[in-house]
Amino acid sequence: MKDKISIIVPIYNTAKYLPACLDSIKNQTYDNLEVILIDDGSTDDSGKIAEGYAKKDSRFKVIHQENAGQSTARNNGLKKATGKYISFADSDDQIKPKFIESLLNLYKKDNVSVAVCGHQYYRVKENSSTNLYQSDLKPRGKNESKKAYIMKLLAKDGRMYSCNNKLFKASVIKDNKLFFNEKINFSEDTNFVLDYLAHANGEISYDKTPLYIYYFGTDSSTIKSSATKWNNWQAAYKNLKHWLGPRPSIKERFWLHTIHLRWRISFVRSCRRTKKS
Predict the structure, then answer these.
(1) Contact 112, 106 (CB under 8 A)
(2) Is the pTM of this model over 0.70?
(3) ∠ CA(36), CA(50), CA(24), 5° rounding?
(4) Is residue 160 a contact partner of residue 150, using CB atoms and an 8 Å limit?
(5) Strand, coil or helix: what is 12?
(6) CATH classification of 5-276 is 3.90.550.10, yes or no?
């Protein structure tokens, strides 16, 4: 029997984009899915749309909660998930038909901790898209620590930051009681990914095909405003240092400082984009 895959979708006031998102999940080439839709107190028709999909397709399940934020919604989804593997999708994004099938195939390799794919970055305002993270992911060096390798990936590009372009082992999440930090609304998914990798044995397996479509600039997007607050970046950096531990190696410190520089540049660019829009 095929392994069950749980897809967790937090929803808040995305009625305009939600049908396209749910259709993209419904039309996956891999069909043994459990789709957990968490309506985070939406005030538009999002909850009704989610219920409509659940009535027509038994794989879709809906949870309604008072508005508590995306992390709480994801956590409630994790508590209900029964699949062997778990993935996440935002309700204003889409996934391509082979998203689940391709990520699951990566687990057929030996010693895999997490399966990752490329991104298609769609700018709503400009009506344009760019495929990201198209370079091959070089394997970890023989004498390279796991944390140094992960820090290097974070420093070089953004493929490891998001929880959405990945397929996780449910056993790692549940055995180690991993959840999203509900006290923050910036870089919370990166914290989750790092916590997962700290507990997951094996290596990162990557398919550079842009299977996850990230919609930037939708009405419900919060990253645009949160990225223009430097204290959010500082808090994320503090969390990264804590994850690294009290005595990082020379290579780990090098990549940590590189990340800090990159984040400063990203912060400035975010502020400039906001002023232009």
Answers:
(1) yes
(2) yes
(3) 75
(4) yes
(5) coil
(6) yes
